[in-house]
Amino acid sequence: SSSVQIAPSILSADMAWLGRDLEYVSQADLIHFDVMDGHFTGNLTFGPDILRAVKRNTDLPLDVHMMVSDPDHMVEWFVEAGADMITVHWEASTHLHRTISFIHEHGVRAGVVLNPATPAHVLESIISDLDMVLVMSVNPGFGGQRFIPGALAKIKAVKRLAEQAGAAPLIEVDGGISANNIEEVVAAGADVIVAGSAIFGATDPAAEIERMRSLGNA
Ligand code: DX5
Ligand code: ZN
Q1: Which end of the chain is flanked by fewer CB atoms within 10 Å, N or C?
Q2: For residues 50 and 33, what is the distance between their CA atoms, to the nearest angstrom?
Q3: Record-annotated residues binding a divalent metal cation (predicted)?
Q4: What is the DSSP string of the chain?
Q5: What are the Cα distances from residue 81, in Å, to 71, 97, 113?
Q6: How far, in Å, CA of 142 to CA of 100, rounded?
Q7: Cβ proximity of 43 and 12 under 8 Å
Q8: Domains of the chain and CATH, by start
Q9: Residue range 69-89: mean pLDDT, rounded
Q10: Residue range 75-94: mean pLDDT, rounded
């Protein structure tokens, strides 16, 4: 398979120095942007205006992870603000097929996110339409949580489901990933690795990206 992509989560950046922190991670593959509404998750983060500000300060594609209740009406805000890909939670979307189609109609890549307790098979009827599946390896809401090992089997199950459907969505994994466990996550089938605290908590975030990338590609 092709080389692993590293997506720093700016949830763990210093919000007062976001421009500087975006520069630190300019050699990454994507910028992961965690949208939380204080309802689907017990935390509140960024809206479309911040996405616009991020877009002005990086050349990297913007990967918008929507941890919001009823994302179906909200995706439009992030499409307009310049998202390159948008993922919505299976648990939160009532009209998932319509929402994925809407995102695609606007030329943006689309994916579905599964919480740790949601099995892979719920994607059976939608997987052929997806550019990406995001497997949560923590319960969403906060950076710096511990990786839930059950995510490894979930990654494999998503991959099998995709193969059976003749589909090849990118598999992204989010939560608790660092240089200590990236190898097993990639070995299970991950294509895109999200890392927040591991990258922004490092003394040299750029070097940490390189270290994780080379471990992931080993
Ligand atoms: C969790 C977010 C993650 C988080 C990852 O709700 O979706 O993107 O920021 O942070 P780490 O890498 O610190 O677990
Ligand atoms: Zn995320």
Answers
A1: N
A2: 10
A3: 32, 34, 65, 174
A4: --PPEEEEBGGGS-GGGHHHHHHHTTTSS-EEEEEEBSSSSS-B---HHHHHHHHHT--SPEEEEEE-SSGGGTHHHHHHTT-SEEEEETTT-SSHHHHHHHHHHTT-EEEEEE-TTS-GGGGTTTGGG-SEEEEESS-TT-SSPPP-TTHHHHHHHHHHHHHHTT---EEEEESS--TTTHHHHHHHT-SEEEESHHHHTSSSHHHHHHHHHHHHT-
A5: 15, 22, 21
A6: 25
A7: no
A8: 5-216 (3.20.20.70)
A9: 96
A10: 97
Centre of ligand 2 to C-alpha 118, Å, is 16
The answer to whether residues 73 and 92 touch, using CB atoms and an 8 Å cutoff, is: no
Please confirm, yes or no, whether 131 is among the known catalytic residues: no
Q: Residue-wise over 32-49: b if at least 16 C-beta within 10 A, else e?
A: bbbbbbeebbeeebbebe
Beta bridge partners of 63: 32, 85
| Residue for token pair 């310049």 | 82
> In this predicted complex, what is the ipTM?
0.98
Tell me if 193 CB under 6 Å of ligand 1. Answer: no
Q: Which residue CA neighbors atom 4 of ligand 1 most closely? A: 143
**Minimum-distance ligand 1 atom for the alpha carbon of 139:** 6
pTM, two decimal places: 0.98
CA distances from 43 to 15, 38, 39, 212 (A): 15, 5, 8, 28
Gap between the Cα atoms of 137 and 129, Å rounded: 23
Is 195 near ligand 1, meaning CB less than 6 Å away?
yes
Identity of residue 129: D
